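ERR on first pass: missing label on line 2. Operator R.T. fixed the label and resubmitted. Corrected input:
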Amino acid sequence: MRAFSELYEELDTTTSTNLKVAAMVRYFNTATPADAAWAAYILSGRRLKRFIGQSLLWRWLIEVSDLPEWLVEESYSAVGDLAETVALLMEGNLAAAAVVPDLPLSTWIEARLLPLREVDDEQQRVAIIEWWRTLPYRECFILNKLLTGELRVGVSELLVTRALAEVLKLERNDVTRRIMGEWRPSAEFWENLRSSEASASDPSAPYPFFLASPLEADPATLGPTSDWLAEWKWDGIRSELIRREGKCFIWSRGEDLVTERFPEVVAAAAQLPDGVVLDGELVAWRDGAIQPFADLQQRIGRKKLSPAILKEVPVRFLAYDLLEQDYTDLRALPLRERRARLEALSANAPDSLGISSAITASSWEQLANLRTESRARAVEGLMLKSLDSPYGTGRQRGSWWKWKIDPYSFDGVMLYAQPGHGRRSNLYTDYTFGVWSNGELVPVAKAYSGLSNVEIADLDRWIRLHTTEKFGPVRQVEQTQVFELAYEGIAASSRHKSGIALRFPRIMRRRLDKPAGEADTLSDLQAVLAAHRGQTRHEDPAS
Amino acid sequence: MISAPEPLVVVTANGLYCPPGDFYVDPWQPVQTAVITHGHGDHLRHGSARYILARPGAGIARQRLGGDREVTPVDYGTRVQLGTTSVSLHPAGHILGSAQVRIEHEGRVWVVSGDYKRQPDPTCAAFEPVECDVFISEATFALPVYRFPETPRVVEEIHRWWMANRERGIASALFCYALGKSQRVLSELRAFTHEPVYVHGAVDSLTGVYRRAGVSMLPTLPVGTEKKTDFRGALILAPPSAAGTPWMRRFGDHATGFCSGWMRVRGDRRRRGYDRGFVISDHADWPALIETCTASRAKKILLTHGYSDALTRYFNERGVEASALQTSYGAED
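pass 2 clean. output:
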C-alpha cells in the first residue's frame, strides 16, 4: 500500500494535469496487475462500501489515543476528517521499530479488509488497532479512508483514462468504454484490459456520454445556423437507453444502472429493434409538456414505485442521438446522419419514447428570441450541436454547446452559519439565508458555494465576531449581511417553514452595499413560484 | 486571612502589564516601557518610548522600528532593575533574539514565554528552561494533532521538491515568514546545496540583519534587481502575503510551497491553495508545550494565544492550575 499512498500524495500535491497523469502512469507501470486493477477502480471514482462505521472508529480512537474524548473532538474539528485525525494522533504512538513491511494494495483489500465483513466487532477492533499502531502516517490515512468507504482521489475520470490509455496503449475512447459500468477489480480484469481484443461483450455496456460546454461567445461566431442543430435544453436526467439481446438497460449520467426506476420507458423500448443505443433525457412529462424537475425528483426519491406515483409523475425518454444501430457503433458518423436515422427509427415510437425536437430558425437572432422563452417552457435554455460533429467522449469543446439562460436570483439576509465539512471544517462555510415576511426573516435557502476562499475567510471572521447565539455547531448571526443568491428552480414545499423550496441555490455575491431592510420578501418569491407553476403546463409547440 | 499575592502580570487594554515593575511585555498599544520577547509584528509594535530586548534581536528591532526609537539591548541572563522587580531575558528558541521574560519580585518568579520552540534552530539560541511560580505560555499549536517532524528531514523534502521542479523546467516559490522562518530554511538548506536562492525584498532586508548577526545561510539574490531574470529551476523565498499577487507573474510557470506548522493538517494546505505544505514551525508542538510547561515547575500556568482553551482544560483535568489570558497576538507561523 506504500506505493499507492505515495501516488495519492503526489496526486494530492499538484494541480498540474500532466504531473498527475505521469504519476498514475508510473504507478500502473510498476504495480502488479491486481494492484493496478484496484488502483484503477479507486482512481476512477468507484468506491468500496464502508467496512466500519465512523462511530466505532471513533470509539477505538478514544480508547487507544490516551486522550480525553473532548480533546479528540477538538482535534477532529481542527482537522475536519476522521481518517486524517486518526493518522495524526496515532503517529505520536508509533514506535519507529514497529513499522511493518509493506503489503500490496490488493492484499490489503482482499486479504485484510474484505474479511473484516465476516468477523465481529471485537475482532475488527483488535485488527484495526494493531494496524493503526504499526502503519506510518500516510498509509494509516489511506487505510482509514478505505475503512470508511470515503477514499476519493483528486483526479477526473478523464485523467485516469489518459493514464490508462498510455499504459495500456489503447485509444482513450476504448479505455473509457472498457472501464465503464460495474466490474470487479482483479489481476484478470487488468490482463483483460491489456489484451487488445475487446472484453467479452456485455449487453449492458454503455458508451461514454458526450458533454456540451457552456457557450460564452456570441453565437454568431459559430457560423451559419444551418450548420447547427438547435434543441431545448431539457431539465431532466441525462441517460442512455440500450436495447440489446432482447433486453433494455438505462444508464444515468452518474453511471448508475437505473432501468427499474422507469418501467414505462422500458415497456416502450421493447418496441425498438435490437442492437440500438440512444442518448437522451428522462423527464417528467404530462399532457404533452415537461414538468418541473422537482416532480421527477419526487419519483426518484421513492424506494418503491407505487401505481399512484407512476400515474402522478409519468416519465418520458426524449432521445437526442442514436449511438448504435444493428449492433454497429455510429458515433463516428456526422450528427446529420445519426439524426436522420434517429428520426426514422422513432417515427412510430410509443408515447413514453419521444425525440427531442429540432428547433427550426433561420437566424441567431431568432434563436436568441426563442431562448428568452426558455423559462416559460420550463427548459434551461438551448443546446447547439454542429451537424457535422461525431459523438465524442467527455467534454470536448467546439462542437456541442449549451446556451443556458441566466438563473433566477434574489437578495437574502444571512441568518445562520455552520462549519463546513472536510477541509472546511474549521471555517464557517455553510450559510442559511432568509427573506422578509411580516416583519421577520424566514429561512428560504442554504448555500455552500459561490464565494472565493478570501471572501470565505473574511466572512468567517465576521461571523465569529457577530454571533448572537450558538446552537451546537450552528451560529445565529446579526441580521445585517445581504447576499445575492441564484437558483435554478422553485417549488412549493410543505417541509419548509417558508412553504417554498429552491433548487440549487448558490451565492452570487455579497451585497455590502445593501442594508438588510432592502432584501427581498417572501411574497417576491411566491410570485415567482406562481408564475413558474402557470407556465409548466405549456404545450411544447415543437412536438 | 491572608490575601493572595498581587499578580506580577495582568492583562490591560494596552497589553500584558507588570504593576510592580511598571512595564509592559509586548504591548499592543504605545506605552512608556516595553519589554519585547521578539521582533514579529504582533509582539513588537510601533510607538512606545523605550524598548528593552535581548541583544541578538536589536538589529531586527532597529530595522523594524526605524532609528529614532530608544532600543535597550540586554544580554541573555543579565538582570535589569525595573521598578521594584528584577527582570532578565532568556532564550526562547523562536527566532533570532527571541526571549522569555523572567520577572522576580519579593521572592516570587513569573516567566512570560512569548513564542517559543524546542526544536534545534541554527539561526538562534536554544530555548532555556527557566523555573518559576507562574508560567505564561503561548498555545498556538496546543492540540495533539500538532506534532512536528524533525526539521532537517523536512528541509530535505524541500530540496527534493525544488530539484523535481527544476527537472520540469519550472520555478519553485516557497512561502515563509520573512522574519525567522526564511532565514532558518536558508540556513538548514546548506546541508543539501550551495546554490544561491532568490528572495523577496521583505526577506532580503531581514536576511541582511541575520548575516550581520553572524548567521550562516545560503547566498541570496534579491528578486527584481536585474531585468529579465530566467527563474526556471530557481528557488524563490517570499512572504505568504506575496502569494497570488501580480509580483508572482515574473516567475512564469512555478510550483508553490508553504512552510508552516499549520501545514500539518491537509485541509489547511488545500484551503490555502499551495501545491505543497512543509511542516516547519517556529512554535512548540503539543508534546513540547506540555513538556515545557511541566518543566517550568510552575504552580500556575497562564496561556495566551492559540488553542489556549484546550490546553487550559487539559492541565486543569490533570490537577495543574491553568487559565487562559485574552491577548491580541496572532497565530501566524
